Amino acid sequence: MQLYMDPASYQILGNFKILTTAIMYRLIIKQNLKRKQWFALFLLFSGGVAYSLGTIRNSSGVPKQITTSGAVMNRMYVHPLGFFMIAIYCTISGFSGVYNEWILKKYYTESIHIQNIFLYTYGVIFNLIPAITVAMYSSGSSYSFNLFHGFTFYTWIIILTQALSGIFMGVIIKHSSNIIRLFVISFSLIVAAILSVFVFNIHLNIYFFIAFITMICSLSIYYS
C-alpha cells in the first residue's frame, strides 16, 4: 500500500477508519446515530488529521521520496491505486471492529476471555501459515523456522502491552461500543504525545492543541 503513497499521506488518510467504523456501526449494529453525533465523529476525524499533521511537522516535514531516476524530492503524493487500497483498508478495519462487537454482544453471557480465544485463534493460524511458508522458501535446502528469532526483552514488553491493549479493547467493545473505542484510541494519542514531552523531550506544536480541543469538543457534542 505504501508503495503508492508517501508515509505522511498514509498516516493522514488512515483516519478515515473513524468514519468507516461509524458507517459499519449503522449498517451492522443497526444503531441510528443522530446528526450531532455524526458531526461529533467528523470532528473526531478532523482531530485525528490535525494530530497526524502535527507528527509530520515534528518529524521535520514530509519524508523524502526517491523517484525512478534516483532523484530525491520532498512532496506528498497519493496514486489513485493507493487511494483505492487505503479505502479498502479503512472499510475492512471498520467492518472487522463492528463485526467483532456484534459477535461479542450476541453471546453476551459468555466469558470475554473464551470469546477472545475463539475469535483470535483464527488470526494465529492464518499468520502462521505464511510465516512457515516464507521460512521454507527462504532457507533453501536447510529448512529452519524460529518464530522468536531476534526477540529481545523489549520485544516481549511490546507484545505484553499490545495483548493487554487488545483485552481492554475487547471489554470496551463488549460492554460499550466501537464508537467509544474510537474516542479511547484518539485520546490515547493525546496521552502518548504528552508522555513524549517528558520522555523524549518532544516539543508540541499548534496542531497538537488543535487536535486536543477538537477531540474534547467532539466528545462533548457526542454525549450532549
From TrEMBL:
A Pfam family reported for this protein in Swiss-Prot or TrEMBL: Nuc_sug_transp
GO cellular component: Golgi membrane
Transmembrane segments: 12-29, 38-56, 76-96, 117-139, 151-172, 179-200, 206-223
Database matches in InterPro entries: Nuc_sug_transpt
Topology of this chain in the membrane: Multi-pass membrane protein
Main location class: membrane
GO molecular function ontology, one term from the record: pyrimidine nucleotide-sugar transmembrane transporter activity
PANTHER family associated with the record: NUCLEOTIDE-SUGAR TRANSMEMBRANE TRANSPORTER
Protein's UniProt name: Uncharacterized protein
Organism of this sequence: Adineta steineri
